[in-house]
Amino acid sequence: MALRRVRAVWRIGRMTLQVLRGVWIAWREFDGASAAHRCARIQQWSAEMLALLGITLRPSGRFRNGPQLLAINHVSWLDIMAVHAVCPQARFVSKSDVKAWPLLGWLITQAGTLFIERENKRDALRVVHQSAEALKAGDTVAFFPEGTTSDGHHLLPFHANLLQAAVSSGAPVQPVALRFSEPGHAVSPSAAYIGETTLVQSLWMIACASGIEVHVDVLEPVASEGLDRRALVQAVRGRIAASLGVPDAAHNPPVT
Questions:
Q1: Contacts of the segment 20-29: beta carbons below 8 A, 24+ positions apart
Q2: What are the beta bridge partners of residue 68?
Q3: Other CB atoms closer than 10 Å to residue 94's CB: what's the count?
Q4: In whole angstroms, what is the distance from residue 92 CA to residue 144 CA?
Q5: pTM, entire model
Q6: Helix (H, G, I), strand (E, B), or coil: what is residue 59?
Q7: Which of 85, 106, 233, 245 has its CA 20 to 30 A from that of 176?
Q8: Collapsing DSSP states into helix, strand and coil, what is residue 213?
Q9: 152 vs 10, 37, 78, 134, 215, CA distance in Å?
Q10: Which of 31-40, 67-76, 148-157 has the highest mean pLDDT?
Q11: Quick one: pLDDT band at residue 21, thresholds 50, 70, 90?
Q12: Considering only the top CATH level, what class is 2-251?
């Protein structure tokens, strides 16, 4: 137990230095940098952060070139880092209170994140339009259709609103299935960030754990042409559910 705590403190210390290093890189290099340089830095930093926390990245499948809307199930505050470690060009749509996270919030902003006030329907419409314009410009936009984190054992209802950005722009939707595991657990209890768990508590559980792996499974894309957002969300959710081995949309209809 004592050794585990020492290891956790060591990991958190190195993670803190990595956050500061990320702030330095973004401040010194991102202003005026090429998209390729920014992506290389984001990918390197994200992969290193996972490694410093003792998390092994297990990607499968490949992201396509060109504009795409990534639809990803949501498990942990680590999800953005896990996806950026394999798809650094992704611009995430994230809830606005993430901006208030110490240092990490600023770093997430520098990665081109689009922020949304989920309780504000007018703001949600703004982000749909902003995402559609980003897709038309050739960007990769990513979002969590569940809107919040699950425990990893099942999927929450999917919100279909943001999929309108894919319908409006004609961009395909790329389902991505995320799963954290650890020895003895196909679904990691240490990585779950749910309920009343605070960010500090979650960080401590992750730092104390041993052998966590994050599986990033890039699934077959879904063409948006000829589909409305309801049909699109069912197709996307079905593919993610099948990859994770959890009940599909027929058992848990989407929220619109």
A1: 20/103, 21/45, 22/49, 22/107, 23/103, 23/106, 23/107, 26/106, 26/107, 26/110
A2: 140
A3: 21
A4: 9
A5: 0.90
A6: strand
A7: 106
A8: strand
A9: 27, 33, 13, 30, 12
A10: 67-76
A11: very high
A12: alpha beta
**What ranges do the domains of the chain cover?**
2-251
| Three-state DSSP class for residue 223 | coil
From CA 223, how far away is CA 231, in angstroms rounded?
11
Query: What average pLDDT does the chain have?
Result: 88
Task: Spell out the residues 6+ positions from residue 138 whose beta carbon is closer than 8 angstroms to its own.
Answer: 66, 67
Long-range contacts at 248-252 (CB < 8 A, ≥ 24 apart): 249/158, 252/154, 252/155, 252/156, 252/157
What would the pLDDT profile of 36-51 be if each residue is shown by its tens digit? 999 999 999 999 999 9
Q: How confident is residue 121, by pLDDT bands cut at 50, 70 and 90?
A: low
Higher pLDDT, 112 or 176: 176
Examine the pLDDT at 250 and tell me if it is beyond 50.
no
